[in-house]
Amino acid sequence: MQEHVLHLQGIRKCYGSGDLQTEILHGIDLRLQRGEFAALIGPSGSGKSTLLNLIGLLDRPSSGKLEIDGEDIARLDDAELTRLRGQRIGFVFQHHNLIPAFTAEENVAMPMLVARGRPDRDMFETAGRLLEQVGLGERKQYLANRLSGGQQQRVAIARALAMNPALVLADEPTGNLDTHSADEVFSLMREFNRHQATTFLIVTHDPRLAARCDRIIELIDGHIAADSQLT
Amino acid sequence: MKAWLPFEWIAAWRFLREGRMQSLLIIVGVGVGVAVIVFMSALLSGLQDNLIKRTLSSQPHITLLPVEEVARPQQASAANTALRLQKNAQRLRTIDQWQTLRDRLQGWPEIAAVSPVASGPAFAIRGEASKAITVLGIEPERYNRVIALTERLTAGQLRVGAGEAVIGIELAKDLGAEVGDKLRLSVADGRSETLTITGLFDLGNKGVNARNVYVGLRTAQSLLDLVGGVSSIDLALHDLDLAEQLARRIAGETGLTADSWIKTNAQFVTALTSQRVSSNVIRFFIALSVAFGIASVLVVSVIQRSKEIGILRAMGATQAQMLRIFLLQGGIVGFFGSLLGSLLAWSLLVLWQLLARNPDGTAMFVISVEPGLVLTAAGGASVVGILAALLPARRAAQLDPVVAIRG
């Protein structure tokens, strides 16, 4: 089994073209090992979102090498990239994560449905189990928009884990929540990390939450300014 | 998600169900368009069938006549001769070998009935009154299969034995005659025959009702000096639209003149055709505006759902899957709109048949909504819906997930 879930080497990202070209990321080197629980912090405009989009395979780097679970993405076409993203990466966004036309259970089953093309019993069993684990077993038939913000984020975490991904990317997952809900959501991610050795990379502004991670990566002006292991 | 449908169908259906008001409005919009198309088509085909039926109630589908006589000058083209060719006056002639021809045509699969007729001009005289008429000598059983005379009788019966005649109601009125009365027919060269009126008919055409006098074939043959001969052969076909084609084929094979109803009613047929063309133009533009309606609703829907599209893409949904989700929404809207439209059109037609009545209270004409028309409308509307969704669906598929999620 590959030790490194994520391997970035000399990643650069530019936007625009010609004279107007601006470089957002100036050669990022970063490795994440299986089971790591890392925070990505930095002021706005530092390139956090850009980096997260690259790692999430939503965008391609301008140059540099990016490996997910040992697979070099430079060799993959767009369709293969989409497939790899669906199977190896889970996302938790800041808000409006869920698709309101579907129930909590269906939202959790969605990545499996997208991958397999048709619903089956197995995906709903998996979805039900995950919802139990995030404490929403009784709400599985609720439409997504009838859940509270904290509940929605918990469903989003269950969904991110549905495909048993190598890496879960969370972009300000608690940004819109009160401290109590934020705490719950954070603890939940921590629990999955401990029990299933799922790797998490969490973008956050909240120093309190960052301090509860194993590792803090600080991004400033497109460079990694600090990378410290907490004990 | 109880039904084990493909992902795209589930998502398309849920998106439509969630945007309830929008979906409902556009389905009603499609429904109104489809209703107009179906109603117009049914009305038009009912009207045209009815017109054709009325026109052909007193006309055969094809009439075979002997070739016209032409003058053949003996000096073909002498340069110094001033030659004026005068067209022959056409005398009444018989069709050669008509029995053989009759039996041969009877064997053609396209031909429903063959009826030889001996006809010519005569006068109908009763007391002081005298009317110019056309004598038609027929074999009633065969003739009835070409023109349903029995159904059109208003009095008496279709009996044309020796000394018997069936006349139109208009002629009967002019002559003051009724069933059982005597009538004398006389032709230009002096022969005449006294007949008993056995029946009166109404073929729905005043001219025909005043002019046609049906007698037995033998009576007509002797009256018109066509002993053993017939002046024309009337045909009925299984398929009206093939009349012109078949007429040409028969003319080619027999050397006779063959006139189809399409040719003898050229102006009428042209009117029907242009009516059909103009209705096709209207239908096309209705379909076009329905398509634009569907497209505009879906464009808005793609914008509203861009965040959801982004999330689905982040979860591994491919561009092709997104494309299909929105194409399906167009198709589903078209399909349900067409069902609603067919229902609406059907109610309109029922209403129409209740309200549009002849002065005597009978239905003006029969319109039926054929299942084929409804199926065509449903299929057509679904295809139009999918085509209309093409542009919005492409937009959805090409949405950059990064931009979409950031919203």
From TrEMBL, chain B:
Q: Which GO terms describe its biological process?
A: lipoprotein localization to outer membrane
Q: Does the keyword Cell membrane apply?
A: yes
- Keyword hit for Transmembrane: yes
Question: Where exactly are the transmembrane stretches of this chain?
Answer: 24-47, 284-304, 325-352, 372-391
UniProt topology in membrane: Multi-pass membrane protein
Domain named ABC3 transporter permease C-terminal is located at 281-401
The cellular location(s) given in this protein's UniProt record come to: Cell membrane
Q: Name one GO cellular component term.
A: plasma membrane protein complex
> Which Pfam families does this one have?
FtsX, MacB_PCD
InterPro entries xref list: ABC3_permease_C, Lipoprotein-release_system, MacB_PCD
| MacB-like periplasmic core domain residues | 23-251
Q: Which UniProt keywords apply?
A: Cell membrane, Membrane, Transmembrane, Transmembrane helix
Name the family: Belongs to the ABC-4 integral membrane protein family. LolC/E subfamily.
Cite the PANTHER family for this sequence.
Answer: LIPOPROTEIN-RELEASING SYSTEM TRANSMEMBRANE PROTEIN LOLE
**Official protein name in the record:** ABC transporter permease
